[in-house]
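wait is this the right file?? whatever heres the structure
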């Protein structure tokens, strides 16, 4: 555990210690509230009767054993519906004089619904055995009603067996047919929609985004390559211009007539040298000596200076009229370096055009993928609206398939097993203690709520308070280090008052605890608290 975690734990422990009175008060209030809630809550008693469904052991063939679990569940479910019908429960309520107070203020339908949904429970235990439970406030009436409900199973089963099986089978088959038609129609619409907007579907969004990012990166790389080629093209054009100008100066100095397409008449070698020196100074101010442009201008400047030194004329006019390097007058001269540069320039222009075509194609693809990605939210909303009730239809259809099989099996068994009947295995017994409320559970919840509310209030007061409890908080707030911290110094009078308050608080706490324990013991002896 690091230092920060220890500081945090210490901070919360300090909060609990500072606010212990508030927490203890909330704890005691929770105890009192839980005890009061338990005493005010009406006692509910419950009786349970175990019933077994006995079937006649007659099988058409040895290869078709009975499905005991499915048969019992189906019969119990159907008979339970008959027993908990309004007419049956209303007759039972009048017979045993149940819910007298509620019948005086509520209609009979509400009273029957309350009895059916809240007080009667029918559930299968194991195999052919299931239980019937009833809850109520009078233990004697609860016992009688539970036994009456158990006896109703025997009566209703004999009367509604044949009608139940045939009607259930027909109803389930009709529902299954309608559910299948609705499901087929829904699946056809989903299939057509997905085929029409496959690339714009939400499940393709990840692939589309990945491809779009790749295309955008490819487009950027294409732009960078194109810009590099453009800069290289400008540099090659400058080299060709400077080379042609230099060559023209050299040829005129040798007395030859240069024939160079696209060249301009120079104004003199000295002017060119001065211009190149200015360009070199400007480049050196921005780049290092190893930059390609600086090196290129240096080389051209060196060549012009060497040519100027060789001619010995201030205007760059050659004093030589012949010799080994002389060029005949009016004879065209082709420089291999210029031709190489022009070939390189043609290649650059070709590559630039090719990159432009690729960029146009990439732009079209990016637009397509952007369209697909932009349409994904719309398709997702439309697909959600289209498939909103598909899962419910599918689950409903699957449930009806199972119910159809169960209904057919039940119908077949009903025709062959006429002697099946219910038998009360364990009748209901007199309830000695209430089923609800649970004293332990209520008190645990009350204590937990009291402690939780107390801790929450303590933490809330600490958060709302503006005082500083720790030097580190003051350092964070002021942004200055705390050199030392002086603890609170209380006077003797303040210490006496504090001690008196602590004694009074302790006495009050002891009295409260003793009062709560005495009240709980009294109610327990009176039978109002049942553990």
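ok assuming it is, sequence goes like this
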């Amino acid at each position: 555990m690091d230092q920060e975690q220890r500081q945090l734990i210490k901070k919360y422990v300090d909060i609990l210690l500072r606010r212990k009175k508030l927490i203890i008060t909330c704890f005691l209030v929770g105890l009192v509230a839980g005890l009061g809630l338990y005493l005010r809550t009406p006692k509910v008693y419950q009786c349970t009767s175990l019933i077994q469904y006995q079937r006649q052991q007659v099988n058409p063939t040895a290869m078709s054993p009975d499905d005991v679990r499915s048969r019992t569940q189906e019969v119990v479910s159907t008979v339970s519906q008959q027993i908990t019908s309004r007419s049956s429960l209303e007759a039972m309520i009048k017979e045993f004089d149940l819910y007298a107070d509620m019948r005086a203020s509520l209609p009979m339908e509400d009273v029957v619904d309350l009895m059916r949904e809240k007080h009667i429970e029918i559930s299968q235990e194991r195999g052919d055995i299931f239980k019937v439970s009833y809850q109520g406030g009078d233990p004697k009436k609860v016992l009688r009603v539970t036994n009456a409900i158990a006896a109703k199973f025997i009566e209703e089963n004999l009367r509604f067996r044949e009608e139940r099986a045939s009607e259930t089978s027909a109803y389930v088959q009709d529902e299954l047919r309608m559910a299948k038609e609705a499901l087929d129609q829904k699946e056809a619409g989903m299939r057509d929609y997905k085929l029409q907007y496959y690339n714009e579907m939400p499940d393709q969004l990840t692939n589309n985004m990945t491809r779009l990012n790749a295309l955008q990166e490819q487009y950027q790389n294409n732009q960078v390559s194109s810009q590099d080629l453009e800069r290289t093209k400008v540099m090659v054009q400058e080299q060709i211009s400077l080379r042609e100008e230099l060559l023209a100066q050299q040829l005129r100095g040798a007395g030859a007539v240069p024939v160079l397409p696209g060249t301009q008449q120079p104004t003199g070698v000295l002017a060119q040298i001065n211009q190149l020196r200015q360009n070199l100074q400007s480049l050196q101010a921005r780049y290092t000596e190893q930059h390609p442009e600086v090196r290129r201008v240096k080389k051209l400047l060196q060549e012009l200076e060497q040519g100027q030194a060789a001619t010995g004329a201030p205007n760059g006019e050659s004093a030589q009229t012949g010799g080994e390097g002389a060029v005949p007058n009016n004879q065209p001269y082709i420089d291999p370096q210029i031709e190489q540069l022009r070939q390189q320039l043609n290649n650059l222009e070709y590559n630039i055009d090719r990159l432009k075509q690729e960029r146009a194609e990439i732009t079209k693809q990016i637009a397509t993928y952007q369209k697909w990605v932009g349409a994904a939210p719309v398709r997702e909303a439309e697909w959600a609206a289209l498939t909103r009730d598909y899962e419910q239809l599918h689950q409903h259809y699957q449930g009806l398939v199972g119910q159809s099989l169960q209904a057919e099996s039940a119908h077949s068994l009903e025709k062959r097993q006429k002697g099946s009947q219910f038998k009360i295995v364990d009748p209901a017994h007199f309830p000695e203690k209430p089923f609800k409320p649970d004293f332990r559970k209520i008190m645990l919840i009350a204590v937990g709520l009291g402690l939780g509310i107390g801790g929450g209030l303590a933490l809330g007061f600490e958060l709302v308070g503006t005082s500083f409890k720790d030097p580190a908080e003051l350092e964070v707030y002021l942004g200055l280090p705390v050199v030392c911290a002086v603890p609170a110094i209380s006077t003797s009078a303040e210490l006496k008052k504090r001690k008196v308050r602590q004694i009074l608080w302790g006495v009050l706490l002891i009295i409260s605890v003793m009062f709560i324990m005495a009240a709980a013991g009294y109610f327990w002896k009176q039978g109002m608290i049942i553990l």
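The mean pLDDT is 77. so i think its the right one actually
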